[in-house]
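Milestone M4 deliverable, item 7.
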Amino acid sequence: MRIVQIANFYGASSGGLRTTLDALGRGYAAAGHERVLVVPGRRYAAVRSRADGLRVTLPGLPVGGGYRMMVSPRTLRRLLLRLAPDSLEVSDKLTLVHTAAWARARGVRSVLFSHERADAILAPRLPGWVPLAPLADGWNRRLAAGFDAVVAASAFSCAEFARVDAPAVHRVPLGVDLRVFAPPRAGAGVGAAQRAGVRLVFAGRLSAEKSPALPLETLRVLRRRGVDARLDVLGDGPERARLQRRAAGLPVRFHGHVADRGAVAGLLARADVALVPCPVEAFGLAALEALACGTPVVVADAGAARELLAPGAGLAVGDSPGAVAEGVRTVLGWPEPVRRAAARRRAEEFPWARTVAGMLRVHAGGAP
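Output delivered:
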């Protein structure tokens, strides 16, 4: 089967989108399928590798934050005609919807991978008085009617399509690289008992919808309550300068975008608690990667990240600094070996191989 994946906003700092597409692509290729990835870039290019298949870059328009967007539907459609996919996987709910009609007209199966909820996409772009639910529902009806199948990674993400009675929605949870994201070797001694202070970590894009200010204010509350805590912030985005000003006087280190996945894993593993405060997470890949490193999480009590919790692996809390701080203190009160083992054990339920197998069943026309 030739599976063509297409996505806009795929770049060096794309985070979960890039991680997911790359992991799926390698899985498709390893399973003996022909994988092609089409993404925007500075200029046209085509690179093939045994592990990843063929990657085609089409000229894209810069749209800020290091991202680009393919803006010529005609160019993309001509490329798709040459590629002749058996199944088309679209990772874009806004700008690449036109490809569903192209696929249907040619008898090509089309699968939309819903990486974000429509209401979460629309909320920061519309005035507060605009009713989001009717707009999101109307758009989701169009998506469900246009694509042969819709895939979402969590119950939270599936819910927006269930609300409009979409006929072919499949839940396929994402995965984690359990070799890269792993606890430190025995005897490495990363816990609070082996060093002074409590280490917190936040990993994610520094944009408003991710609530990146909440970890800073949580740290402020903890220190006010006598907890010797510090915070590592992994990621970049439009809020970084404002956050750095807000963090003045606090023990916070802004690492920026960390391209080396091993380095990210090391920072997660050295933390005592990972904070995932975004209330509209479509899955919670940052939480899963922390769990895989044996680091318990404190997540928002809204959104999908709470679905990843298991007894002893973390807590879901409200969206105030006080609530998050109390959650951190509760988690730290659990025996460290127990909470770290529980975190890793939960992550081991989400290998990428399971995600790939589920997606291949969807591409073949079945249920995951």
